[in-house]
Amino acid sequence: MASGDSFFITTPIFYVNDVPHIGHAYTEVAADVLARWHRQAGDDTWLLTGTDEHGEKVLRTATANNTTPKRWADQLVESAWKPLLQTVDIANDDYIRTTDERHEKGVAAFIRQLYDDGHIYEGLYEGYYCVGCEEYKTRDELVETETGDYAGQLVCAIHSRPVEILKEKNYFFRMSDFQQQLLDLYESQPDFVQPESVRNEIIQFVKQGLEDLSISRSSFDWGIPVPWDPTHVIYVWFDALLNYVTAVGYGDPTRRDEFLRRWPATHLVGKDIARFHAVIWPAMLMAAGLSVPKQVFGHGWLLVGGEKMSKSKLTGIAPQQITEVFGSDAFRYYFLRAISFGQDGSFSWEDLSARYQAELANGFGNLASRVIAMVTRYCDGSVPAPGDYLDADLAIQRTVAIAAVAADAAIERLAIHEAIAAIWTIVDDLNGYITEQQPWVLAKDPAQAARLGTVLYTATEGLRALAVLLSPVIPKATTKLWDALGAETGLGALTAQPIRAAGEWGQLPVGSAITPLEGLFPRIEEPVPA
Ligand code: MSP
Question: For residue 486, how far is the Cα from the chain centroid?
């Protein structure tokens, strides 16, 4: 994309029935890396996240805890969900709660318009509902259990808990009207739903035929009232999906320009909720005459012991368990490097610890401290002037140029793991270069002073490029490196460095004052919990 374009990226809004686990933090981190990258590319970037606070699931949790759903939500948002953003270092631009007045007003305006335009009618819903999923279920999405607490009952295949049988008067959204338009959308915009596996599943699902969607409930009242019939509240997913537009001004005449400037968005979601985002949501937008999202990307699951990690199955890991030992940078790096974005990935403490040691501490951290230490010792602490460049030096320049272009192209495809792998070629090549060039030997021979300058300039300039390119992924470590390189004085703040120009050689000013660098990724005494 061209610099200056709007880049609006969202995470799902999370249910406040429970505290966050690493699966939630994973989406936050992926969205944050993309947002930081685009900000550094000069794009008009907006990162939105938040919480989904209505519906039966939250209501039941609050009731079970002897409180009201609003009080419950307030408490969880402040004690758990907003702190998650600090835990994994998210630079979000906005945080929406579905109990915000701006949201409730926007939702009311939206549903009213659909009702006035004939997209909503009253009917009878008879069928199954899983409160865990907050989703209407068909018979083939349920399984009959033979053993355990629910033997003989129909349970949701995801939650392994019994479903409810509903028979209510509901309002329905004429979603079936949009079947062909949706199929045309998937056809004409092949990257609307990604990755391919999720796209194929969505197309199959829509081809089987779309039913109208029940969008109201009347058996409880924790939700946004249906404007023309306050005995009903709006179905929690219909309400929640609208956060993506109400946050940026939909429904508020005073924020019309903002809405037009930001929308449409790129949505990052777990593949289990891709259907809501790639079927229901675009159909809702089509009915309202609004643009469909730019893209819906369904990422994979974090698996523990081969199964989707989940709190309800007691395999949930809290993000702080990892960040307290390894730090937020390592959390960010690990999940985005080790797992191909879009595929499932197994989490293990052993793998995390091995990558921390090999890639972050030995690969990148040591490279940075060794180079800084050598410039301090051999060049009086200032970046030396390069002499003539030889083939080995030019090879590093090429690596940097190629890595920067490849990383940007990978980010454009949301292949975050590929972007990091491309950048890591600089780490590997620079480590090899230093081993071969042996600056410590050159330093002993006054006749090699010019060559020493070239080698150490090449190494520090390589670190400059690494700091800029890795800043979206490991913001804390790269900021320390930037300071140690003395780059701020000559080049300005790290986050202001144009990332698409990161591969252009020779930006670090000769003579920049280098300062000592503490170990970026220190040794960890007990990396794998007992
Ligand atoms: N509130 C809805 C989303 C509404 S968006 C308009 C919801 N909330 S949730 O709290 O259940 O969070 C779901 C998100 O967490 C989904 O994207 C889901 O895929 C993700 N994950 C839950 N467990 C996960 C893993 N084990 N691994 C990766 N992501 C996982 O659904």
Answer: 31
